[in-house]
Amino acid sequence: MSTVLIRGGTLITDRHTYGADIFVEDERIHDIAPHIPPETADRVIDAAGMLVMPGGIDVHTHLDMPFGGTTSSDDFETGTRAAAFGGTTTIVDFAIQAKGTKMRDALDTWWKKAEGKACIDYGLHMIVTDLGTSGLEDMDDMVSEGVASFKLFMAYPNVLMVDDATIFKALGQTAKNGALVCMHAENGGVIDTIVQRALAEGKTAPVYHALTRPTRAEAEAVHRSIALAEMAGAPVYIVHLSSEDALNQVREARDRGLPAFAETCPQYLLLSIEELERPDFEGAKYVFTPPLREKRNLPKLWDGLRHDHLQVVSTDHCPFCFADQKHLGKDDFTKIPNGGPGIENRLQLIHHHGVNAGKISLNRFVELVSATPARLFGMYPRKGALEVGSDADIVVWDPNALHTISAASHHMRVDYSMFEGFEVRGNARQVLSRGEVIVEDGRFHGRAGRGNYLRRQARGGAWN
Ligand SMILES: [Zn+2]
User: Ligand 1: distance of its center to the CA of 241 in Å?
Assistant: First the structure.
């Protein structure tokens, strides 16, 4: 195993900023010290003027995921490679239990999707669609396989939605086994009714995807999720929170001392509902769930990040090509595959629009994109930290590198970018995954299949 010395950089963790060298050996951080002699290492990376951070962790991705008769366009190879280009070295994707089957079947299916393909380490959450057939022991079985988190849907009736009793039972089981429940919080029954009404009135354009999903439907479900978790005596994590209305529910719960957590995504922080009104069906590029909201929500979400009402920024990366996949919904917005690409650009966007804009500190940035996701999802301090013994998942970040985001140059396998033309200052220069330099100066040096499945610990940070 070769050794790497990262020399002369400024280390940024969620808690500290300091100058030090990092010595990497056997896939791990072996030493952190002010001056480590360069002749001790096989490879020296000069990080003068650079920021050295733990690799990004994206706990919400959907690679190779079937949806609405098609499949998300990035698989575990193209998706994790794109992630690496943007400084993300770990993802947690979602396996989906098919109704009437064991969760283990889904786990096997998703392991096969990732095998031989993943370029960075990956964990899996389990989407629970049915507790009737397999029972609650199935959840314990998953925890023993390192699936330390579950996701349940309050939206998408007849597809993924489960009732309150199922959610409550699942939460109750995590109170025993220490896993974390993630909630897609939108009132699916109400939304479906509004959607049917819109279609009956001939409202079929992409923008109706947003207009049929009110923020109250999100806020109500967030409130209900937290109430169910409180009754079950378990923490809860709200995925892709999109609106001030919903944020207020999380803040209120946290003010009461409840272990309620929430993530948001770059699209909700930087884009608004106007995108769905783009001509020539281009609004479909921005159809995902929850939808983009009115502009006034954006500063509220940034405030939420600053004041820790929101704890994580993930992407909900779920790409569908505009040309042949988004067009499935040309005449009916409900047939547009829900999802957008973003796995590559999360760090660039949050660094630029958060840190450069003075909204959050560098330490808070690392906390949001790496340390807290690692803690909440049972990977810390193996991931999300720069500590002796941690996996050497490290980003050497050039805070002054200028980059223009574009489908023409990105590495995601999708024919558009939600952030086309966005100019950012700050980008990954070298990306190390378990000590191996897999991205350097815009070139990929890793290989498909080198990423390992991560067995995550139960009773992670949400429990203390
Ligand atoms: Zn999602």
Answer: 11
Distance between CA atoms of residues 372 and 381, nearest Å: 10
Structure confidence by residue, pLDDT tens digits, 312-343: 999 999 999 999 999 999 999 999 999 999 99
Compute, in angstroms, the gap from residue 61 CA to the centroid of ligand 1.
Answer: 6
- Quote the ligand 1 centre to 139 CA distance (angstroms): 20
Distance linking the first and last C-alpha atoms of the chain: 37
Question: Measured in angstroms, how far is the CA atom of residue 402 from the centroid of ligand 1?
Answer: 30
Q: Are 54 and 347 in contact (CB under 8 A)?
A: no
DSSP state, 310? S
Residue 133 has pLDDT above 80, yes or no: no
Residues whose beta carbons lie less than 5 angstroms from ion ligand 1: 316
Q: Which helix (H) or strand (E) holds 76?
A: helix 76-85
Instruction: Give me ligand 1 centre to Cα 95, in Å.
Output: 11
Nearest CA-CA partner of 430 in 52, 40, 13: 52
Instruction: Look at residues 185, 177, 254 and name the one whose alpha carbon lies nearest to residue 225.
Output: 185
176 CA → ligand 1 middle, Å: 26
Tell me the three state secondary structure of residue 122. Answer: strand
Ligand 1 centroid–CA 175 distance in Å is 24
DSSP per-residue codes, 225-281: HHHHHHHHT--EEE-S---HHHHHHHHHHHHTT--EEEEE-HHHHH--GGGGG-TTT
